[in-house]
Design a protein that fits this description.
This protein is α+β, with helices and mostly antiparallel strands. The protein contains six helices and 19 strands. It has helices spanning 18-30, 35-45, 50-57, 63-72, 94-97, 131-134, and strands at residues 6-9, 12-15, 77-82, 85-90, 105-108, 111-115, 119-123, 146-150, 159-168, 171-182, 185-198, 201-204, 207-214, 217-219, 228-230, 233-240, 242-250, 262-269, 272-280. It has a six-stranded mixed sheet with strand order 1-2-5-6-7-8. The longest helix has 13 residues, at 18-30. The model has no long low-confidence stretch (mean pLDDT 93).
């Protein structure tokens, strides 16, 4: 991205316009399997991203230590209770989490945005004095200059697939698929987390390798005659508890019945590997 396309003020990145923003977003999407490249860009900029804070926290194994960290950075994590487990999900799709600061804030032109797990909030006129309002609970915001849109339905919380595979009765991996609508585009995310059961509760734990891959696939837009190709990708991390990647960004409505992309979630604990395969990105 051209250095003239953006600036950095008061802890947030400001893109000159939507063209510059979309160009950077696409660059992040294309380099997800080289996260150090993205992280170095943010370090050089001075941006402490939501992703950088999340990755530290989600790899804290001790529950008390994690809870202390969570209280310091509550806007980065979104707790979801599933099957005696609390999954502390990243509050934004992976690609956005590299752009937003820990409060989910970034700017495009005069519009100041905040992305959360459930909503996208926008200050249209660039009035910085209203940023504290963005941090309020959505139900308490009554300012007409702030536009609020939902990123998914409240029933599924964006999650449309939840699967597990067990090493033992107290060790497993959990696979999730998410879909979020942000600014008119749909973001399909795949996430894998390693967990261990402690005192009846599942908790994240680092293992030898954690990963999420997907085969070459295709997405058929309703408005296009021919499907577009989704390139295969392999992503893994060593000695971590969690990995998440954005698989596809749909700028038009996708016909799921004529689209297909199969994800594989896996974890390696010592010499033992567990997998969740053929996880359909387009349900």
């Amino acid at each position: 991205m051209n250095q003239n396309d953006y600036s950095f003020i008061n802890g947030r990145i400001i893109f000159n316009d939507s063209i510059a923003f979309n160009k950077h977003l696409q660059w992040i999407f294309e380099n997800q399997n080289q996260p150090e490249l993205i992280k170095q860009f943010n370090i050089n900029l001075g941006l402490i991203s939501m992703m950088s804070i999340y990755e530290i926290g989600i790899n804290i194994y001790n529950e008390n230590d994690f809870n202390k960290y969570y209280l310091l950075h509550p806007n980065v994590f979104y707790p979801i209770e599933v099957e005696s487990s609390v999954l502390y999900e990243l509050s934004a799709p992976s690609v956005f989490a590299y752009i937003a600061n820990e409060n989910g804030i970034y700017q495009i032109g005069k519009s100041i945005y905040r992305i959360t797990f459930n909503h996208l909030l926008e200050i249209e006129n660039g009035d910085e004095s209203k940023i504290p309002i963005l941090l309020m609970p959505v139900k308490d915001i009554s300012d007409n200059n702030i536009i609020i849109s939902e990123t998914h339905d409240n029933f599924t919380k964006g999650q449309y697939s939840y699967k597990t595979s067990y090493f033992t009765s107290t060790k497993r991996i959990v696979a999730r698929l998410y879909k979020n609508n942000i600014g008119g585009a749909d973001y399909y995310d795949a996430r894998t987390t390693s967990q261990r059961k402690i005192f009846g509760v599942w908790w994240q734990r680092q293992i030898t390798q954690i990963g999420v891959d997907w085969n070459q696939g295709y997405a058929k837009y309703y408005s296009w005659n021919n499907p577009c190709t989704i390139n295969a990708q392999t992503n893994s991390l060593s000695n971590k508890a969690n990995i998440q990647r954005t698989v596809f960004i749909a700028h038009y409505s996708v016909d799921h019945s004529q689209s297909s992309c199969l994800a594989k979630h896996y974890g390696k604990d010592g010499t033992t590997t567990k997998q969740i395969t053929n996880n359909q990105i387009f349900p």
